[in-house]
Amino acid sequence: MKKLDSSLRNMVVVLVAVAMVTGGLLATVNRFTAEPIREQAAKMLAEGIRKVMGGQEVEVMSADTLHLTIDKKDATFVLHKVKGGGAAVESSTMGYGGALRVLVGFSPEGTILGYTVLQHAETPGLGAQAGEWFQSGKKGNIIGRSAAASPLTVRNDGGDVDAITASTITSRAFLKAINQAYQAFRTSEANLTTKQQ
To answer: Do the beta carbons of residue 117 and residue 125 sit within 8 Å?
Structure first.
């Protein structure tokens, strides 16, 4: 029995030592890579904002976080308000395969200027087409549209937007993210108007 205690103690000591060395290495790698990762994410966001707002000369005036309750669920949006009016709004919802996060550009009047998919876990070749399917000139085009009168919905649900072939769930989730982004944009604009009065 003494031999077993000794080898168990040795295994625990070795395991703890390996875990400490590995943890130290991971912490060091994290420290050296955290800033480049942050810089790359900021650069990608800036490029996304330019893209969805339709121009290279876009100046972000502020980035505000807005918390809303939509369909009895808490939702968080980031609004990147741009000089001259309008905003790029980060919105997310659950798609077929997981989280679906989009960045939507709105004119001061609430017209959709553009969008880009920031994150998705949709099926490759099907739901992953959301990045292009709803762009200008494509079958499900939503550019230039507004959700002011009624939310954007797919034809299967009585709307007038063509769903991605064989990906109705992803299409519904994508349009839900767009509609929620519009709701956040309008809420933000209403709050701004109230503060100015």
So the answer is: no
